[in-house]
Design goal:
- The chain is an all-beta fold.
- It has one helix and 24 strands.
- The protein has a two-stranded antiparallel ribbon with strand order 1-2.
- Strand 17 and strand 18 form a beta hairpin.
């Protein structure tokens, strides 16, 4: 297998396009390890059918091995899904994500004042700038270039509008159920503090970076309570305040 001990290239004969170098079976120059027992030429090689393209999620397009629709090339040996968390160098690499940007960590993430609606869409938070009608939050509209809750609804968090009649009245923060994550709004209603989200209209749970003291308070998938703050689990990275994605840099370097 690749990485196995050898004395001559003939010891690597069971692996196509492998040679013995420094007593180790490795792929020949211009070839990449596909798995522990296979080397391949990677992307952009000539092909006549999809079977010639052995990189996962690639196919033969115009007689060249290229990534399938919905995937993008990473180096010459990976086709990665066009989603948040993908490696990037510039903002243009994240242009397939609505309101996406290339973060300082060189991954596609949501722009400031937006949140992850799904794996490839970032939407403006309530009370932040909007241009037309890109406010994706239920019961919200773009009014005066700000995403705002519709008439009769109140922002219980930065990502949720709820029927105003369902909110508990209050005079001060401690009138609300749990003052760590709730606060009393100017409208004298109990709402979630910034960077929290309403859960079943009866509690507020912290987004990434929010205060916590037990794991089940951290509602974001693949997050946990670490040093009293919600953070992504190991080998996951934050792409917005409400989303942890697999760290492709870690996965592809193994």
């Amino acid at each position: 297998h690749l990485g196995g001990l050898c004395k001559a290239s003939s010891d690597c004969i069971n692996i196509d396009d492998a040679v013995c170098k420094m007593n180790e079976c490795i792929c020949e120059r211009g070839f990449f390890p596909i798995n522990r027992s296979q080397c391949g030429r990677g992307l952009r090689i000539e092909c006549s059918s999809d079977e010639d393209c052995i990189i996962m999620n690639s196919q033969c397009i115009e007689k060249k091995c290229r990534c399938r629709d919905g995937y993008t090339q990473n180096l010459e040996k990976f086709c990665l899904p066009k989603v948040l968390g993908q490696k990037c160098e510039t903002d243009s690499d994240c242009s397939f994500i609505q309101q996406g940007k290339c973060s300082p960590d060189k991954i596609c993430a949501c722009s400031l004042d937006t949140f992850a609606l799904d794996n490839k869409t970032c939407s403006p938070l309530l009370n932040t700038f909007c241009q037309f009608n890109e406010c994706e939050i239920e019961f919200s509209d773009c009014v005066d270039h700000k995403c705002q809750c519709k008439l009769g609804y109140t922002a219980i968090s930065s990502t949720q509008c709820i029927n105003s009649n369902l909110l508990e009245p209050c005079e001060k923060n401690h009138d609300c159920l749990e003052p760590w994550h709730f606060e009393c709004s100017k409208e004298k209603k109990c709402v979630c503090k910034a960077n929290n989200v309403a859960f079943k209209n009866s509690s507020c749970l912290p987004h990434l970076g929010g205060i916590c003291w037990k794991n089940d308070q951290c509602h974001v998938n693949n997050s946990r309570c670490d040093d009293y703050h919600c953070r992504c689990k190991p080998n996951f990275i934050p792409v917005s305040s409400n989303k942890c994605e697999p760290n492709f840099s870690f996965l592809t370097s193994r």
